[in-house]
Design brief:
It is a single chain. The chain has about 425 residues and is α+β, with helices and mostly antiparallel strands. The chain has a domain of about 290 residues: Aminoglycoside 3'-phosphotransferase, Chain: A, domain 2. The protein is about 45% helix and about 15% strand. It contains 15 helices and 11 strands. Strands 1-2-3-4-6-5 form a 6-stranded mixed β-sheet. A 3-stranded antiparallel β-sheet has the order 7-9-10, with helices on one face. The longest helix is centred in the C-terminal third of the chain and has 25 residues. It is globular and about 75 Å long.
Length: about 425
Amino acid sequence: MTKIISNGMVVPDYIDEELFKKAIENECGQNSVEIDSVVITNGSGGGENYCSDILRCSVKFNLNNNVGDKSLEKSLIVKSMKMQENTEIPTMETHLYGVVVPEMEKIFERQGINVSFSPKVFHSIDKPVVTMVMNDLSTDNFILEDRIKGLDEDHIRVLLKKIAQFHASSMIVNKEKPELIESLQLSIFEKEKGDEKVFDDVICGNIPHIANIFKDKIGYEKIAEKLGTVFDKFTDKMIEVCKNSTKDCVKVINHGDLWVNNFLYKHDSEGKPVDVSLIDLQIAYYAGLGIDINYFFNTSIPLDLLATKRYDFLRFYYKHLKESLELLHHDDIPTWEDVREEVRNKELYGFWTMEAILPIIALNKDTAKDSSIEKFADAEAFNNQRKIMLSEKRVYETMKYSLVRFDELGILD
């Protein structure tokens, strides 16, 4: 009988021997794997992952050709979605990992280039909870960066190159196999999300509090008033922005949740980033590329770089988007003006990530350790945490700068 050691953690019944057996068999290409033991530890800390449970599992096993010999061992990540009932979000991620992303990687392989976008998923189940078993990239020295500080310039450029490749290959997939994109047409604002009240509070509940913080600050009085207008029917406005796609809009598969903890970096011997892998694809969808760019800029780039190198970073992204599309022989390459206009048209999305997402992810580790999607449903607990979130130095200084910029762009009108 397989020993599953959970180190005192409560592990659901569906994370069992059969789950690991099928994952190892799929990964090895054999159908006679015997699981010897599984040691399970927590794969993420508080404030590191909000919508899923992450387990790191060290699996010892035997193949049919090494029975009786020393067991083989492999480290796997098991991801189980929390957002399960009354929502279509979880199953979308298995489609991305299992079907769409591999197809995007093959597009580069046809040109003799090895590009890996995400960890490999070896096995997944839909019931009782959407659960995936995937490769543990930490064994290949991929690590998370600091969500509180944000990224330095080297890490930003590595990510922008990879997301440009991701976007470019998705444009080819849409051209060659549009049926793979059919299920990716709705943003998170349009899907069934579960508890609507909790969702609305998370996405725009900070706005009145931000207005209150800045209403008496010299030069921000009118901005604070405008925030009330932005707050009114905010979800409807976000849906309108997500659908703001003219025939000339540069449409791609957006990762949809492009912040520091959703990519893992690999570094060279000198500590320089050389590669990045994208994780957490549960809200990816097909829309204008300005969604991803605005999300990433307003969550993951520190203020000093955001204020001084935004234009340079967008230029860098476009350079690699154009190069990738040329390499992949795409016949309708967007111009720099197309991309710049598309990003400008999605600036309200950037405002949302600044006011709603940044405060959550930049929260100090002591306060964040108890954060979870369940806590967001507790209005009193979340409001207490909200006060701390909005007072964090990085968050406050970024809001102070960004509110003026968004106002000058007319986003708050």
